[in-house]
Records
---
Amino acid sequence: MMSRSTARGWGRLASVLAAVVLVSWGSDSRAARQEEEPDAALRRFALVVGSSEGGPGRERLRYAGSDALAMSRVLEELGGVAPADRVLLLEADRDMLLSALERLKTLVDGAAMPGVRRELVVYYSGHSDADGLLPRGERVTYGDLRRLMGLVPVDVRIAILDSCGSGALTRFKGGLRRPSFLTDVSAQVRGHAYLASSSADEVAQESDTIGASFFTHFLVTGLRGAADTTGDGRVTLHEAYQFAFHETLARTERSQGGPQHAAYDIQLAGSGDLVMTDLRGSNARLRVAEEVQGRLFVRDWGNQLVAELQKPAGRRLSLGLEAGRYHVTLERPTQRFEAELLVGTKGDAELRVGDFVPVTLTRTAARGGTVPSDAPLAREGALEDMPSVPINLSLVPPLSTSCLLYTS
């Protein structure tokens, strides 16, 4: 699937890019200003692209389109993107992608207002190679992508590319993993940050079990609130990355495609935070009580998995969701519990220990007489009798997936 650029052009990378996040500040980003109001007016524009076809000889991706839809929804619901400021392209070719960037340039040109910070988010899920994106097999070089994004007159540019990747991304020009560059206010940074969903010689994988690519699935879960480690109701770029890194690794370390290590390289000057989503303005939230502990799977009434995370005891958690009915599964090493609840638009829905009912799990033998090592033991009991399990500090236990599709 993808690659990234250098400062002179992304086409020089020898390996394939995984998920790139580029944060670039325009020359008119009020450089002389030392601080920025956390509640400063913001208008965010987005181009969201999902492309399953990569041309002859490349396998058709199953979830590029649904990944794009999931990202589009979370940006609109929690990321400050108005429907009129978003362009969604499914199975677009090269000309359609380039035309969409031109449309956004025109839209942003007409949206200039004093005191309003403008941001551009470009998300792409699909195929690529060392030279550029491959929507429907038609190349868009990374140099062209960067140039066209640079023509859009915004203060902040964010590019998220979900694809097979390379650890050369984090080693370019001696780049190393760096400490958090984000603080607790709106961003006051210049330069760029690259996030890759897989390291050198690794593949970025998508899964039939979760119905998505691993990295986008956990990135969206994080943006919906699972990554909010500070509990301030906002998810920063750093928080979202850390969550997606640990969850993606845990879910792929025993997969067919092998462990998938997200990586990043940061070339930033200044300080500040880039808030990606804000749950405080959401009218539909699911609050998970502190005493709930275990692996949570949240599915909508259509059985689509919308969030998955490891919930440690003692941490109160909120998820920004669409209004509707949800089915929640709580898994422990030898137990499973289920709950159903309605998330409305007035007030928060609360998920407590008492809402869960135990489910009897049956141990099954695989053909050949062996028992899968990760098969749960059959057990019934009250939720209050669940055994205490030490908290995994990475927030993610090692899990395997059953059906994988990956491309190199």
Note: The radius of gyration is 21 Å.
---
Amino acid sequence: MRTNIELDDALLAEAMEITGLSTKKATVEKALRDLVRIHRQMRALDALEGMGWEGDLDEMRTDWDAETDWDVKKAK
């Protein structure tokens, strides 16, 4: 799709330098792809909110016995 937009020349030049891209089109497309990717990642993280593990790591670390919990035999 052909679109005409006015861009901040200094901002575009900096973006091209940072990305190493040589065309305005490639730079704008990368910026749009990155924006969409970041937004999707943020939505995915928001969807995970509240799904965390609820437990007591300190109790887990001290409340087990290798012989019984892992069926480990002591070396003789």
Note: Residues 8-49 form one domain.
---
Amino acid sequence: MEPETQKRVLLSPLAWGLGHATRIIPIINELSQKGYLVTVATNKELGALIANHCPNSDIIDFYSPKMKLRMGKVSVFNLLSFLVKLPFVTIIEHKKVKMLLKGKQFTLIISDNRYGFRLPDTKSVIITHQLRVIPPKPFGFLKLPGKKIIKYLLSKFDEVWVPDFNGSVRIAGILSESNGLNNLKYIGLLSRFYNSTAPPSSDFYWDITAIASGPEPQKSEFIKLVTACLLGNGQRCLILKGDPLERNQEETIGNITLIGILDEEEMYQAIKNSRLVISRSGYSTIMDLLCLNKRAILIPTPGQTEQEYLAQRMNDLGWFKTVNQTELSKEFLLALLDRTIPAPPRFNLKQVLDFIE
């Protein structure tokens, strides 16, 4: 039987792709090392991912709304539709958390970008780098109301943990500016690879590793496009499909190996030992690439304004090369590979989790 004094923590990541789940892995591991009993409330897909990396965690099925992103004008209206639905999703989340925790006691609740995942009588923390929104260009007038809505939702939490630096080098740029909030903690980069120190292995050498991520159908579009661009280019290529339900399932097409997902050590080796990475420009992916000091080409998800902003910011800083999805072709990629792809700066990744009590 568990001691009555043992601390319990409940976590829940947003289910837009895998990024929000992968970046809480170091948080979960640190909590476990400090004696917390960890429960993660999520869907089947993310539950499989977290269970693989954090086998001591208790995984429970929980309401996890998803978003589909399509290209062009449709994607803009999909995004606007989601923003309109956000208050209602937040209310539903909050009610479901109350139902989930009825008769249960937790010391701490941690949400990753889920604004309704909190309780007033339990210390509640949210992890987010999005302290403001970037609306599509035709809807710039939504910037101020969006900023106010985000500020209001975040102010409901006891603490906001921002995976970024608060200083002259801010990875997320304007996204992680304080927005007038006084409950912020800037915790530095969060990466599942923060503690990886294994030496390189020749078993995991690739010329190019492509990492698919994000909502459907754009994740599948990315896989299809990158496969067409890499096939027959004379390079040894790996495509990680980002599907936790296809763990270690492997398929070979010419010079390309496609794998559903790898465990943490294999993923580390695949990225670390690749000459080049091709990926979306999600913030969690960018943090992983910075953690591993890896050269990369970023392809932002069309219509996802945050990714478009981050990709342009990384390109402007000279840390990564950015290419729009509509520009990518086999010929374009081959020409790009003949040039020197910049390497990002090295960050002194101190143990960012010391603040967890």
Note: The chain has two domains: 8-186, 202-337.
---
Amino acid sequence: MSTFYGSRGGQPSFPSQANAFSSKPNKSNLPNNNIRLNISNTGINANRPRTIKSYKSIFEKVFYNRMKFYHRLSAVLALIITILLYIPSKSNAIFIPVKFILLWTGYTFFQQARISSLTIESSKASNLIQKIVSLFCSKKSYILGGTILLNNLLVSLILYAQSDSSLNYYIETPTKTIKPFVNDNFAFFVFFTIASSIIYSLNYIMSEKFLLQIPMGTYRQEPISYLKKLPHLKLLVLTTLKSIFAFFVIPLTYHVFFRDIFFQTFLKPLVLFNDLNNQLPRSDFSFKLLFKLSFYFWIESLSYDLLNEFFKAYALVGCLVVKTPISHFSDTPFQTLLSGIKDYENSIVRLTAYQELVYLSTSTDFKDRQVFYRADNWNLILAEFFFVQTNAARSARADLPKLKSTDNLKKERLEGIKKQASIFGNQSKDKKSFDFDFDFEINEEEKKADVDVTVVKNDSDAIYTKPEPKAEQISEFEIQYNTAVTSLYTFMDGLKNRIQRYVKNYLNIQSHSLGDTTEANSITYQLDVLYADFSSFTRHLFFGDITEQSNKRIPNKEIVGFSIIALTEMLIHAKVEDKYNTVTGTLTESLTLLTKVYKGTSEFLNNPPAGLSGKRECSIMVINELTISYFFKLVIYYNNILNDLLLPPEVFKLAKWCTDMALEQQREQKFTTNILQ
């Protein structure tokens, strides 16, 4: 790979005046954030050997610097929890520092567990069964669950140390000839600690609270603003519900199912080591102890939720250190940024690199984009865009039911673009609102003949690139599995209908369908609701919902979205800034690529997998709306030269529709203005 510091193929270098705006960073430490570094720092001592720093190495330094703020907030939280634990007890205040250190140590372990289980991609499970199996087979689930159990044990150790004799692990007997029995309150105390850890861990893992999702289109997220915007009332309500659930379920489970088993297994080492009585102690249930433990579980759950939000606040700050992009802390910014974009092993590093690419493509300083107007550099970036977006389009349309002859995109209505809430983060100013019928057809011959080939122009040459074989997302096993599940679902649906007919005949119901009756208090209506819920649960169990299916196909929608935004913004700014026609020369290929993404995502939304509805918002819908929005923006911006381009038929139809819609909106605005005048 050739570097971007010299000329290539006789092409002149960028003007040296740009170098006057650059500043060389300190090699030992991160430079002063007030110094603005320029990505076009290419002309001074070009022959001097330079060390190319990887994006990962710089990102790790920045990341751990940000985590210092997590430690400070966790220390404050540990101090508050220590005081809450101390106030109800009559323990000696001299042990408060020890309790504080224990809690803070546990919170540090929680932070390390979060770092070791960093995840930005959604679960690739297509249904509820696969999701449960994949989560329980994942190493990160056991790391997080073990850390939560460790923290609960530390809190329980503090509670036990400051408790009275009611929590002693044994009960004195009247005579010394009878060995002391295990205290049932102590046994329940230990069981509650373990059970509450399991309850919170399952809730934490199944709801994927460990998932990090950067808002699409944003460059930097201020941690304090993020924490202020948290739904604090929702956190309190959910924590209270978990505590209420534990209050009722744990004692019932202990006394009905696990009391004997727990004594014979978990407490057996304690009995043998302390020479206690082997007999099961009498039940000594205490509501006071239950209320006390439930209250402390509420405190622990709330503290874990807050710690999780503290971690997210500083892990998702973004690609800017104050106002300086991360790659600018390197002598070779472009190579450093490219190493981050190609870092497939570290998803958080790769996502941050794409986030920085969006920042540079939309920067108000044109010098930040000069390096991308080199043909060799732009080809490298465009190849990554092609790889990401083509894989997304292929995955979205893979393994879909066959289209009927009357089912095409001509009847599509993109209602999602009319949404008031922005999905583009800082790019909300570019959001459009449209309501239209889209004349865009697909036939089976075109679909079979469609080959994902993009032409990347380099001067007068043409380089045809195809995605790597690993782009195939749907394996043969998954296809067979989906076929088997479809057959099973058909059988279950038929069984449900037979049961429904049997119940209707048994109750002597004369209506043709249970759904025909709308009286909410009737037995028929209640049965209809019951069957609908059963059908919905069965469908979710085996097929999943539209969200799970779309997350499986495009688990990294943020990276796909950032690549679409960066590609479009680079083309828009290149119209004025690109003196060598490097980026603007790939307009046809870029429009074709965006059309491919829009086509693939539209096929999924119009023809989703069996038993699912494409109306709900999902990752594929977000990408679909983002693509058409930025395609529209690009077409309008380059409208004066579109007729000079050799566009494929599908791209031409979509571009023509965008132009017609823009003209129609102009006419409506003029008409409204004339009426008001």
Note: The radius of gyration is 31 Å.
